[in-house]
Amino acid sequence: MNRIRESSRLDDYLEHTEEVDFRHHTIQEKITELHGRSPDDIAYVKAAFEFVRDGISHSWDIRSSRITRTASEVLLYREGICYAKSNLLCALLRGRGIPAGFCYQRLTLGDTPDTGYAVHALNACYIRSVGKWIRLDARGNKDGVDAQFSLNEERLAFPIRHHYGEKDYPLLYKAPHPKTMDVLLHHTDCKQMYLHGLPTEL
């Protein structure tokens, strides 16, 4: 699917925001650490993606009640759901001058439609050296989920199953969708939020 950019200006995908707070000293420290091991942009994007994918736990996987939202919170507590983890990956990329934004899917909450639906967040970034946007899903791998960095064929966490009513939203957002941030702001227990509070569509 071709991505439709919300903005034609690359600079809009480099903005510091409340959620994508890459100027925070802890984010800057992590950027410096990752950049020291990965000097070129492709290596850096891969390293940042793999850090968020593997180094930050998905809150549901560890059955945590904690809710994180801003990139610096996610880094501090080392956990978050996909909405929060995508904020951190975006911050690590933008803080290195790599344009990054947000993409969304509508997926079944469990394995089948009877479990209901939820909006899932992932990222896209622009790699100047190859002149293309790529999508990355740092949700976190587990049995049945194997998201990988790839410049060519996408290797995302979840394939879209159209026969189950799942969908890939085509828009590449410059900021986290308000529905995803509102749910993080207005809940206090992540397990309850994950089961009963996630938006079902954009």
TrEMBL record:
Domain Transglutaminase-like positions: 35-138
Top-rank lineage group of the source organism: Bacteria
InterPro entries, alphabetized: Papain-like_cys_pep_sf, Transglutaminase-like
A Pfam family the protein falls into: Transglut_core
Name listed for the protein in its UniProt record: Transglutaminase family protein
Organism of derivation: Paenibacillus oceani
